[in-house]
């Protein structure tokens, strides 16, 4: 009797392990293939409409969003501003002011952080850069209070992350 | 290992792959649809924030450019993907009307207000609002966001 039960038990357990393992791999493979096929966050619906310019605009705006969620340190903000500055020239002119405003926002925040760290010279330099950009965007009032409003919402968002 | 066990294991493996693949596909397809429906939120918000900030701080020419850019993007998106509903367009057209009012272009202001009114009614299904009511609504919304 024992000689019959052991292969049955072993076979049943082995079958269960194979079923679970294959189900897991099948699940993962199907997920990966479906995501690669659907590409849900790459604006494929827009691409299928042959609207490459709109898709490029959406990807640029998404780059601005990613820039907004960087760590709140001068070095990270500088990297974000540099990145947007680098991609700026390849974007259509109508879209560049959006990048400019985000770069100015990053510089305002860098100025605040440097001021808090006691680096008044760096803070002034960043503030002047931000002022120059904001003037080019048609701002007349570039007082510290007005510029501070630029970063307030971004900081509030980061604080509630 | 007997032949019967080999066949059973092979059938079990195929069954596992089939079941896993089936559920994996449906889960991923459902999540992809959810992600697709939310993928426009971030870009639309960036354009909206830009238009609002420029509307509040820039001169009329720059404010007009910013609001027009938002309107253009949202209208293009609505045409490209029927699942996207540009609810912010009413507010954008009200801002455009206020920019045109400040620039002393009453005809352009009225055109923008007519667009805003049509959009507002489509989404809110309320009775027709006057020009002042539309502008006051926009001021309240912008003021509330600015106070955050």
What distance lies between the first and last C-alpha atoms of chain B, to the nearest angstrom? 71 Å
Radius of gyration of chain A: 27 Å
Total beta strand runs of chain B: 0
Mean pLDDT of chain A: 86
Poorly predicted runs of chain B: none
Kindly state the mean pLDDT of chain B as a whole number? 88
What is the percent of helical residues of chain A? Answer: over 70%
CA radius of gyration of chain B: 25 Å
Strand content of chain B: under 5%
Succession of helices and strands of chain B: HHHHHH
Tell me the number of strands of chain A: 0
Strand content of chain A: under 5%
Largest interface pair: A-B, 54 and 57 residues
- Largest sheet entry of chain A: none
User: What class do helices, strands and sheet pairing of chain A give?
Assistant: mainly alpha
Instruction: Give the oligomer, counting copies of the same chain as homo and different chains as hetero.
Output: heterodimer
Give start-end ranges of low-pLDDT stretches of chain A.
none
- What is the N-to-C order of secondary-structure elements of chain A (H for helix, E for strand)? HHHHHHH
How much helical structure, as a percent, in the residues of chain B? over 70%
Structural class of chain B: mainly alpha
């Amino acid at each position: 009797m024992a000689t019959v039960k052991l292969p049955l038990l072993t076979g049943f357990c082995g079958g269960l392990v194979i079923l679970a393992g294959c189900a897991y791999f099948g699940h993962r493979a199907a997920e990966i293939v479906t995501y690669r096929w659907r590409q849900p966050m790459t604006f494929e619906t827009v691409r299928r409409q042959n609207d490459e310019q709109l898709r490029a605009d959406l990807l640029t705006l998404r780059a601005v969003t990613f820039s907004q969620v960087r760590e709140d340190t001068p070095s990270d903000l500088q990297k974000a501003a540099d990145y947007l500055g680098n991609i700026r020239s390849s974007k259509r002119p109508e879209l560049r002011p959006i990048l400019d405003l985000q770069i100015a926002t990053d510089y305002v925040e860098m100025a605040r952080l440097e001021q808090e760290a006691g680096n008044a010279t760096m803070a002034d330099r960043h503030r002047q850069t931000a002022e120059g950009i904001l003037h080019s965007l048609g701002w007349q009032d570039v007082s510290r209070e007005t510029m501070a409003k630029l970063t307030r919402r971004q900081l509030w968002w980061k604080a509630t992350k | 290992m007997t032949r019967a066990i080999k066949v059973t294991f092979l059938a079990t493996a195929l069954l596992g792959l089939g079941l896993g693949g089936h559920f994996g596909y449906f889960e991923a397809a459902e999540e992809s649809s959810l992600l697709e429906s939310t993928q426009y939120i971030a870009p639309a918000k960036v354009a909206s924030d830009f238009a609002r900030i420029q509307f509040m701080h820039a001169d009329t020419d720059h404010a007009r450019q910013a609001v027009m850019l938002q309107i253009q993007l949202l209208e293009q998106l609505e045409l490209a993907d029927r699942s996207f509903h540009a609810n912010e367009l009413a507010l954008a057209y009200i801002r455009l009307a206020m920019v045109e009012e400040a620039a002393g272009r009453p005809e352009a202001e009225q055109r923008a207000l007519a667009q805003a009114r049509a959009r507002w009614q489509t989404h809110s299904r309320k009775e027709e609002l006057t020009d002042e009511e539309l502008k006051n609504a926009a001021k309240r919304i912008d003021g509330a966001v600015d106070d955050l």
